[in-house]
Each structure stands twice: as C-alpha cells, then as structure tokens.
Amino acid sequence: MTPWMTLDEARKALDVRAQTIYAYVSRGRIGVSPDPGDSRRSLYRAEDVKALLRRKETGRTRETLAATTLFGAEPSLPTAISTFSGGRPFYRGVDVVNLAATATLEDAAQLLWNLEQAPGFPSPVDVPGSPAASALGVVSALPVGRTRAFAELAALTATGHSTRGRLPRVLVDEAAGLVGRLAVAFGAAAEDGRPLHERLARGWGLPKAVAALLRKTLVLAADHEITSSAFSARITASTGASLPACLLAGLTTFSGPLHGDASGRVRALFDEVEREGADAVVDRYLAAAMPLPGFGHPIYPDGDPRAAALMDEFKPPAAIARLIERVVALTGLPPSMDVALAALVARYRLPADAAFAVFAIARSVGLLAHAMEQLEVDSVIRPRGRYIGPSAAQAPDPRKARRKR
C-alpha cells in the first residue's frame, strides 16, 4: 500500500462520507498532506486510515475492549455529572441550553458540584509565610493571561495538600477558590459578591450587554461529559493529588489545539477571511479537501446546540457571517461552540486570548466536578499497556553491544 490515499480512497476504505474524513483530520486521527501533483488537493495518511479500519473491524474481546476504550477516544467511566441525549447536553439531568438562558456560572457549579446552594468564587488572598506565598508573589506580578493562570496553578500544585482524608465541604471551598483565582489571573475584577461574568466584564472593560453574553457562554461551556481533559483531571484525582494538581492536569490537556484551544485555529481562519474574503478562503480549503476548523461536531451531527444558543444572541461581523453561511451551504457542517466563541470575541473586540480564557474559566468548574466525583472511587485509574515492541527473544543483547564498541 502506498503511504498516502486520496480523499475518495479514504472515504471508500472506511465507508464514510467526506465530512467524516474531515472530522477525523480535525481531531488529529488522520494525517494530511498537500498532493504534490495537484496543490488544490490533499492526501491522507494510509496507515491512519488502516488503523481506523482495524478499530471498526476489531471484535470486542477483553484485550481489544481495553485497547479501544482508550485509543478509540472513548474512555468509559461512570459519572452523574453530565451527558448527551437527543443531540443536546445535560448537567445532572438539566438541559444545558435551557439552563444557560438565565443561570450564572455559580448556578452551574451548584448543579455540577451537587451542592445545596450556589458557591461564590472568591478572589485570591495569599497568606504571608504560607508554602506557596513566595512563588505566588512572583507569579502575581505577571500580566494577566494564560501564562499567569498556569503559573499560579503550578505554584499551588507544588505545595498543595492531598485530597485524601479531607471532608467534601473543605474540598468544595478549595475548588471555589481555585475558580476565583483562575478568573482573576485571566483579568477578572477582584470584586467578591458579584457574579463571575460581571467581574470578568468589568476587568476587561466591557458593557453590561456583553456581560450577559459572557454569562451565557460560561454556563454553556462549563462541562461536556468525559472529555480528554476531564479524564486527565480524574486520573490525577485518583492518585490522591491535590485539587490544584487535578485542575492543572485538566487545563494543560484542555489547552491543546484539538481540544479547548480549538478556537485559536478558528481565529486563524477568521484572519484568513479578513485578508482574502470568505468565498476565496472556503473555496481554497474545499479545493484542497482540507477541513475547515470549527465546523461540524462528532457528538452533534445535526449541529451544536450550544453554538446555536449563543449565536442567537448577537450578529457576527459581516465577513464571519458570510464564512458561516458559505461553509454550511457547501458542506452541510454547522458551526461548533468554537466558532461561536471566536465570533463573539471578534464581534466585541475582546482581549486576544479571551476565547480560551472564557472557555478555561468555565471548564474549570467541570474539571473540578470530575476530580471530586472521582474521589468517591477508592482506586487508582491504571490503564494497561498493549505491548507492540520486539519480544524478549528479539531484543539485542546489551553485552554484545558493549563488546562491539
């Protein structure tokens, strides 16, 4: 088999539509390269297509079940936090889109953390002389943004207390403080007593109308079942690591361009549209069989209801509206939450990294919910490896290797 396949060959091998191939590419599961014989087309890595085909054909034996559970991107863990049903997301049985019509992130935390009342997200107050105080003193001098947010969590991780042997109410208080700290690190005003979306809007100098949009966005983005970042947070929690460690593990996973920072790829697409025009950009992508970032979602084949709910609240800039119209018309793929969030940032000229900041602040609530739920299971998550290297008989003898030198 040649190392590369055309779109038609890949589509026929997997018995799927072209849009599904594009989705596999956007999720990093099929490698893509320009066709050297025709710059308008793309080629797809044959080995990746074969691997996906093997997964489809593999029987569900104990060994293959363990392998596909992880490598098929479907880690199966019991959870009461969130799920999907009928093409819509739910938090503990509550429709998320309906919830976001009026709720705040504090309300969402009450639901996701299974509390009797909504928590506050206090601004950080570092005690002088505490183990993390000196490091936090240095870090807090950094400009607000992603670097400061991750650095503060890293400082707390280095000195944090294990979650083991601590009452749930104590962990909830710590979790609320972590969300508040993260928000302030991203630029939210340190004004306790106000809902977090208002503090974020005040810190960024935004009007009340935009604060209302932030409120809705934060609720829509607070959780999304067992994502790769939630899985990371759960693995960390299962070892008894501190809550800051759980949140940092989740957010570092979340920061990948195929996950929570997908809006960065969408923003780059918007930049291309601004330079070249929507029609030219879409035509170029489709001619090269390249997937358009942020369009289509494997969980929502009929459209991401979170994106629809958010985009009902504002009009994107004309060029972005034209991009969305053209992509939907030509591919049938509706915009995802990543497009909606990037469009919101563009429409109201939010700070450059605002899309990631809003998503990360919101998702920190969900990640902490998963970490605390995992503590109810008294065992470490320990996946088994499926060894594919040389057997012991095939391995080189290190003594012979030394004699050759």
Automatic annotation (TrEMBL):
GO terms for molecular function: citrate synthase activity. One of its GO terms (biological process) is tricarboxylic acid cycle. GO terms for cellular component: cytosol. Residues 4-56 form the Helix-turn-helix domain. Pathway: Carbohydrate metabolism; tricarboxylic acid cycle; isocitrate from oxaloacetate: step 1/2. The keyword Transport does not apply. InterPro entries: Citrate_synth-like_lrg_a-sub, Citrate_synth-like_sm_a-sub, Citrate_synthase, Citrate_synthase_sf, HTH_17. The keyword S-adenosyl-L-methionine does not apply. CDD domains: citrate_synt_like_2. It is an enzyme of class 2 (transferase). Keywords: Transferase. Coiled coil: none annotated. Its EC number is 2.3.3.16. Belongs to the citrate synthase family. This is citrate synthase (unknown stereospecificity). It comes from Roseateles chitinivorans.
